[in-house]
UniProtKB/TrEMBL annotation:
<dbReference type="InterPro" id="IPR015942">
    <property type="entry name" value="Asp/Glu/hydantoin_racemase"/>
</dbReference>
<dbReference type="Pfam" id="PF01177">
    <property type="entry name" value="Asp_Glu_race"/>
</dbReference>
<protein>
    <recommendedName>
        <fullName>Hydrogenase expression protein HupH</fullName>
    </recommendedName>
</protein>
<dbReference type="InterPro" id="IPR001920">
    <property type="entry name" value="Asp/Glu_race"/>
</dbReference>
<dbReference type="InterPro" id="IPR053714">
    <property type="entry name" value="Iso_Racemase_Enz_sf"/>
</dbReference>
<dbReference type="InterPro" id="IPR052186">
    <property type="entry name" value="Hydantoin_racemase-like"/>
</dbReference>
<comment type="similarity">
    <text>Belongs to the HyuE racemase family.</text>
</comment>
Amino acid sequence: MPSSRHPVVRITIIDPVVLDGQVLIDPAPEIPGAVIERRSLAFGTASVESRWDDAFAAPGIIDAAIRAEAAGADAVVVNCMEDPAVDAAREVVRIPVVGPAEAGMHLALCVADRFSILTTEAADIPIVREMVERHRLEHRCASIRAAGLPVLGIGADENDTLRRLTAAAHAAVEDGAAALVLGCTLFASLTDRLAAELPGIPVIDPLSAALHHALTLVRLGVSHSAVGYPAPDAKPISWPADDVHFGPAAAEGSALAAGGPHSEGSVR
């Protein structure tokens, strides 16, 4: 892993969805000192909005993380505020794997005593609540407010999305939030405009938070614990069909599905 002596850090963003040309993904933020590449999945859904979506995306995320490390990436960021498969990916690679939700919440707590998360639809609130509880931050989370938009509807009308986000943000401040974490990485382009509507309230773009966090970990020469995230024992893995692969869309078959070096669980 590069240390602080390395001038450039390679970060791979894994978009845990299948992109078919109709799904719009905002450009990655420019992070000084980082070269960023992106990988989407060849098998999965067009958006992640449920526990089912999380679980279905997991094999592809894990495979993409393995491939990113093998290709020389210094860190991986999973581009979804539900942090799908982040813990599992940490078990099979030794480079840092960062989730936007975890990074965004902890950054919020560096600038405020309590935060709220502005998510997409009301149906997502239980999933976000579980995530907050998993990180034992429920006593620091003032509320979870929904903008009333599906993920794939966020970019349909930017002004309407901002209006909905602003209403949810004001409600969150009334709940006691002193900082706000955007609950979907597709809200990122509205970060500055939303912050202008709430002077004095920090608004956290979780993807930017995750990328900066990944950069810092690499610069410090620190990654996740091999004790906290031990590599799984090698074992045979079977998929339902030889032509099914779950990894990055640009790859020629998945290492897991095609019998590659990790198909027997051989991880570092």
